[in-house]
Specification:
Layout lengths: L6 E5 L3 H5 L2 H8 L6 E5 L6 E6 L3 H14 L3 E6 L2 H10 L4 E5 L7 H10 L4 E7 L3 H4 L9 E7 L4 H11 L6 H10 L2
Parallel strand pairs: 3-4, 3-5, 5-6, 6-7
Antiparallel strand pairs: 1-2
Helix pairs in contact: 3-7
Length: 183
């Protein structure tokens, strides 16, 4: 069997006997002192990001920027809305980064279909239009946590937004980088 076990054997500390209440202490004292406890190993899971934009250079900038600063990310790229939606129906990612306009399927229709399926999804919308112009299009969609970032964006600006959407902490060095590279 070549599979690695998903647990580790760890000796139980002697202090467990000392901290036990008197009745439990009697029971524990009858047990072997070096009883082994099963402790589940912490698995490092990759965060999955679906990127939908018809501009290959935008997808490339996003991926390269994220790979430079964040480990354990998996990217799935699309330039067509229908293809992206099929992937989202198959498996929801940790984050969807999308342009508001793309071939095949408009953003609002995608959001409507995701909402019908009661998807719980974090979304970062990138657009060249200003937020006021998009206000009606970016209405509240239950279950979809949508944030807007205008184009052109700085790599540090989009990185900061994505880290917040993924609920990843920003290290002090990265915070300094954000401050230095904001326009």
């Amino acid at each position: 069997m070549s599979e690695k076990p998903d647990f580790a054997l760890v000796p139980r500390s002697a202090s467990a006997l000392e901290k036990a209440v008197p009745g439990a202490k009697r029971i524990l004292s009858g047990m072997v002192a070096d009883t082994l406890a099963l402790v589940r190993k912490k698995e490092i899971t990759k965060r999955r990001i679906v990127i939908l934009d018809d501009a290959p250079e935008i997808r490339m900038i996003l991926i390269e920027t994220l790979e430079m600063f964040v480990e354990n990310l998996e990217f799935v790229e699309f330039c067509d809305g229908h293809e992206a939606l099929q992937e989202l129906f198959r498996r929801l990612p940790d984050l969807l980064v999308t342009d508001i306009n793309h071939p095949g399927l408009e953003c609002e229709e995608m959001f409507r279909r995701l909402q019908e399926r009661k998807a719980n999804l974090s979304i970062l919308v990138l657009s060249g239009s200003n937020k006021e112009k998009l206000k009606g299009r970016l209405r509240e969609w239950p279950g979809l946590r949508i944030t807007f970032l205008p184009k052109p964006f700085t790599p540090s600006g989009v990185l900061e937004e994505i880290l917040m959407k993924l609920d990843l902490s920003v290290e002090p060095e990265l915070q300094r980088y954000f401050r230095e590279h904001q326009q």
